[in-house]
Design brief:
Elements (H helix, E strand, L loop, with lengths): L4 E7 L5 H7 L5 E6 L7 H7 L3 E5 L6 H9 L6 E5 L3 E2 L2 H13 L3 E9 L13 H6 L3 H11 L7 E2 L8 E4 H7 L11 H11 L3 E12 L9 H21 L4 H22 L2 H24 L2
Helix pairs in contact: 9-11, 10-11
Length: about 300
């Protein structure tokens, strides 16, 4: 049993890929927070692996709050934040730990991502603030070219996808984990910003890799579509508001755009796009009410 790293999961109606994931992680302590109050997987999980601490929530708390609950139970020096649809084995996790200890000024280390075919799909991505500031074609072409190149060594980035990421427990408890106001989306970007603001590096390494089965962890339904789309729009506006970006203009422009698309797709009888644009509008309304209540 590895005594350096605890692996934490946040689940919500995760598919069978979770069990495939757990097969690779038997030598680690694991903390699983299940946001599905009607879940019945606890018995099966305990049969698979006795080294699992399982906690089922009474409601869907979202990624950030559930991850914080998991972190509160971590008593190892490091922890790996992992999602059910991302497969990484013991060797690659230990490689992350080696890289973390290699550099004196590191705050987070992440592996490269491979898709289902085994092709490099990156892990770092263009920071949201840079996407707003630099929207010219030249910058976009550079980003597209870089994202297809498999790196030859460790490199520093401004932000990475939310999982898997290896973090030092004491450091994250000091600077804070995910902002609890993010239900899902942008919590990873916000964490990376705080790590960099504390003078630390974010490292992606090609000496560790994972397989990311995008979208395979959630059951498809109107309810999940609502949660995904409205939460993304809320989180986007909340994130930009923290940096005093002109989010009011974004609200006006996006509201008009989504309302126009909603009406257009009602006429075209496109059910999926009707719901998608409706839920984007709901996300904007959620943010407006939240801003008034919280007065941030």
């Amino acid at each position: 049993m590895n005594n350096d790293i605890t692996i934490i999961f946040v689940l919500y109606k995760s598919g069978n890929i979770l069990y495939e994931n757990l097969k690779e992680l038997k030598n680690f302590k694991k903390i699983i927070i299940d946001n599905n109050p009607s879940s019945t997987i606890e018995t099966e999980l305990k049969l698979i692996d006795k080294n699992i601490v399982y906690k089922k929530m009474n409601s869907n708390l979202g990624m950030s709050k559930a991850a914080k609950i998991a972190l509160d139970s971590v008593n190892t020096n490091f922890f790996l934040y992992l999602t059910a649809d991302t497969i990484i084995n013991e060797k690659n996790i230990l490689n992350l730990l080696t890289i973390y200890k290699k550099y004196p000024n590191i705050g987070l280390v992440a592996p490269i991502h491979l898709d289902k075919k085994g092709d490099y799909s990156g892990n770092y991505f263009c920071h949201p603030l840079k996407r707003i500031i630099n929207r010219n074609k030249f910058n976009k072409n550079i980003y597209k070219s870089l994202s297809k190149l498999l790196p030859e060594g460790d490199f520093s980035v401004s932000t990475v996808w939310g999982a898997p990421i290896l973090l030092k427990t004491s450091l994250i408890k000091e600077i804070g984990f995910f902002d609890q106001n993010f239900f899902m989306y942008f919590e990873d970007v916000d964490l990376c910003d705080r790590i960099i603001d504390n003078g630390l590096e974010i490292i992606e390494t090609p000496f560790s890799f994972c397989h990311h089965h995008k979208g395979s962890s959630n059951i498809k339904s109107i309810n999940n579509l609502y949660t995904t789309i409205s939460s993304y729009k809320f989180s986007e506006l909340y994130y930009f508001s923290k940096f005093k970006i002109k989010y009011r203009i974004r609200i006006y422009i996006h509201s008009f755009d989504y309302f126009f698309r909603l009406i257009l797709n009602v006429v075209l009888f496109n059910k999926l796009k009707i719901f998608s644009n409706l839920f984007r509008l709901v996300g904007i309304i959620r943010f407006i009410f939240y801003k008034k209540i919280s007065k941030f």
